[in-house]
Design a protein that fits this description.
This is Transposase. By secondary structure, the chain is an alpha/beta fold. The protein contains 12 helices and 6 strands. The chain has a single domain, classed as Nucleotidyltransferase, domain 5.
Amino acid sequence: MNYLKLKRFSHHLQVSFSRLNMICRSWYKLYAPDSLKHRRNTDHTKISDSSILAMLIWQAELGIESQRRFCKFFAGLSHSRFNRRSRQLLPLIYLIRHVLNQEVDLSGKILIIDSFPVPVCQPVRNYRVKIFHDMADIGYKATKKVYYYGFKVHAIVSDDGYLLDYAVTKASVHDAKETTELMANAHPVNHYLLGDEGYLGKDLAFKLNQMGYKLWTPYRKNMQGAKEHNDHQLMAIRRTIESDFSLLSYYNAENNRARSLTGFQERLEAAVLAYNMAYCLERFN
């Protein structure tokens, strides 16, 4: 157990804004498509696209939910213009995240799969909310024992905290239903997967086995052979994903205030990029 604690990192993006801006400038030069670089009137902008990207990551690091409040820190920065330009960077953020996936070596790591809720309103408004109609619905948040309206994010995380891939579904979608599609899209080289009791079931284990992955989940206490099966070290490794989700929540992955689907995707991608960027900086500088 001490070994697991010693190998754990904080994942906080402890870097100055000037260095962050320099990193984002390099990313922009390497990965930005020509359609983004040479779009109309891009030469007349006072703030470059790379600086907008750095500001998005900086907002996630500061834990500021409201973009309007964040824009007040910068003199002359229009909230509406910042919001519009940040949404234009969504394909670039998506591309950078997948480039990092190829650069980070996760061979030998155990993968953990779990989900976290993303409510878009207070529970009292669950049955009269109008945003994201036909895209979100009501689900159950087991940790707080409340029903919420919004989405659910299914994520694959390595045992030391790198978020490999994720998928967004309606809040009512069961964890096990999204697992095979998520693994097929991520296609990790690791073949050992840990999940909680929500992933119990012979059908899911068989499908993953057909794909070349072995799923381990703890048995419930009332199940036969639970004491022999429930390896406490594996259970401790699986619980580390809860620490990852708590930090993603600090980066506003769970507190998404966007009111459009594009804005929702952009803020979620920015939070995941900031989280994975902190992982890379802490290990590879």
